[in-house]
Write a structure and sequence with these properties.
By secondary structure, the chain is an all-alpha fold. The chain has 14 helices and 2 strands, in the order ααααααααααααββαα. The mean pLDDT is 86.
């Protein structure tokens, strides 16, 4: 099977919801579903998090990041961390765990390197999305963080399957964009039961059109993607990187309100971005 046929085959299976996840991902999906239950309160969420040592450590670290620790008071317990973050932000922490677990089963060194770069790109987009939402577009920051974490989940799924199709990623990035990105991405997002508003925002990212100044969740995600200093290894050729940098430069020059520019706002929020980025990447 040539790589284009392989893309189409994986995309067709994804479209039908016939997706194969590692066992650890399935466990995290059950946790995500429990957190999505409207009746899941802080105490129940804390107990669920405490059952997973890695998730517990991540939750406490993110709760102590500058983006969420406005008081400067460090906390050490999972229960207090969950109280500070809230269930909705906790869903983003679990989503980050799911995305990283998709790459955890990769053994090929080349694919591992791609997965590591893709996660670094994802973390930059997620951290920037959270800050841009809160300070610029005024959309829900928790949703923006979640959208940033999930925007490349289709790519992670592809990498987790790539070893089954030798030569799948040997071609130009444009082939992934044309034959796999949207179809596989939509299938994985649907399987993970990602809310429609987030799926629509990620769809805006695939379409590549945003308003200036940015206004919507889709604009937030697009702008964060433009500004991310680490490119996706799946869909950015040197020419695409040049286009992205040019778009980012135009966005940085735009006015936000009457007396601020995007660049000045992001400069002021850099500590928040870097703090959140640190706990997401490591």
């Amino acid at each position: 099977m040539n790589r284009l046929d392989a893309f189409k085959s994986i995309a067709a299976l994804a479209g039908r919801g016939e997706l194969t996840f590692p066992a650890n991902v399935n466990a995290s999906l059950k946790l995500q579903q429990a957190l999505a239950d409207p009746d899941c309160h802080i105490e129940a969420a804390a107990k669920l998090v405490q059952a997973d040592p890695l998730l517990a450590a991540r939750t406490v670290a993110i709760a102590n990041s500058v983006a969420f620790n406005r008081s400067g008071i460090e906390i050490t317990s999972v229960r207090n961390a969950v109280q500070r973050l809230g269930v909705r932000t906790l869903q983003s922490v679990v989503a980050a765990l799911i995305v990283r677990q998709l790459g955890s089963t990769i053994t090929d060194p080349v694919l591992q390197a791609k997965a590591a770069q893709l996660w670094e790109h994802t973390a930059h987009v997620a951290a920037l999305s959270q800050v841009i939402a809160r300070r610029v577009t005024k959309v829900d920051a928790d949703t923006a963080l979640f959208a940033g974490i999930m925007h490349e989940v289709g790519g992670f799924y592809l990498l987790s399957r790539a070893a089954e199709f030798p030569g799948l990623l040997d071609g130009e990035p444009q082939e992934w964009i044309e034959y796999g990105e949207q179809a596989i991405g939509q299938g994985v997002l649907a399987k993970l039961k990602v809310p429609e508003a987030v799926m629509n925002a990620i769809g805006s990212l695939w379409e590549g059109l945003r308003a200036i100044p940015p206004e919507s969740l889709g604009d937030t995600l697009l702008l964060a993607n433009d500004l991310a200093p680490v490119a996706s290894p799946l869909n950015e050729s040197p020419a695409a990187i040049a286009v992205r940098n040019a778009r980012a430069a135009r966005g940085i020059d735009c006015l936000i309100g009457d007396d601020a520019t995007l660049s000045s706002i992001l400069a002021d929020a850099d500590e928040e971005v870097q703090s959140l980025l640190h706990v997401l990447v490591h």
